[in-house]
Amino acid sequence: MGNLVIDIGNTALKAAWTDGITLGKTFRYQGEKMSDFILSLVSKDRPDVMVISSTREISSKEEKIFREKCRILVIMDSRHNDVLERNGLPSYLSPDRAASIIAARYLFKGRGCTLFDFGTTLTIDFLDADGNYSGGNISVGCRTRFKAINRYSRSLPLTDTPSEITGAGHDIISSIESGVIGGIIFETEGYLRRYPDNISVFTGGDAIYFAKRMKNSIFVVCNLVLMGLALTAEDYV
């Protein structure tokens, strides 16, 4: 049947069956019963290698159950750093960032890369031309910024990502929208100017939204994390 790769993020789960490094149909789940959803994916077909990348720790009980559903189980979480060690990456990196780096090394071999992941957080990671990890930064994601403005102020409303923004707001809503989106654009453009020779790669839920608003040439790879997990699975075949 092939391999099964699963990315459990801060807000949702994404999974895909893979043939080598080629992704098949992608599944998405957002809910509390993520373990049950994973078991539903393997209820009829047994993967050769199953890779689970998770921002939360996979319990020993879950690990035992998942291990019985595949030939080889590979876990990437706070307790399992084998994949990071094999790829020369620091143990503090979250599994999704590590997977993105693994994929970028493969896709853009021989080129320096700046990787932007526009999700719950905005992460920025750097690779040199030899594929060495040069460090990275963590900032606040787009929707998280909107929620924070509403939560930590007494009078400002909760808004969401607008289809268009102006240079400056002319009421409360447009001021928040322009401030949040414009702030992320300025932040991103600052990194692009700092590393002009790097290939810039956008991924994450808001990648396309911000790529459309950049003046620079951008590579958008929406499933960069899953691709990195597929490459990881191949290492264990």
**Average residue-wise pLDDT:** 93
CATH architecture label of the largest domain: 2-Layer Sandwich
CATH topology of the largest domain: Nucleotidyltransferase, domain 5
Biggest pleated-sheet summary:
5 strands, mixed
Beta strand count? 10
Shape: globular
The computed structural class is alpha/beta
Strand line-up of the largest beta sheet: 3-2-1-4-5
Task: Give your account of this protein's structure.
- This protein is an alpha/beta fold.
- It folds into 2 domains: 3-90, ATPase, nucleotide binding domain (Nucleotidyltransferase, domain 5, 2-Layer Sandwich), CATH 3.30.420; 107-224, ATPase, nucleotide binding domain (Nucleotidyltransferase, domain 5, 2-Layer Sandwich).
- It contains 8 helices and 10 strands.
- It has helices at residues 34-41, 60-67, 82-86, 95-107, 142-151, 172-194, 207-211, 224-236, and strands at residues 3-8, 13-19, 22-29, 49-54, 72-76, 113-118, 121-127, 133-140, 199-203, 219-220.
- A 5-stranded mixed sheet has the order 3-2-1-4-5, with helices on both faces. Strands 8-7-6-9-10 form a 5-stranded mixed sheet, with helices on both faces.
- Helix 4 packs across helix 8 (224-236) and helix 5 (142-151) packs across helix 6 (172-194).
- The relative contact order is 0.17.
- The mean pLDDT is 93.
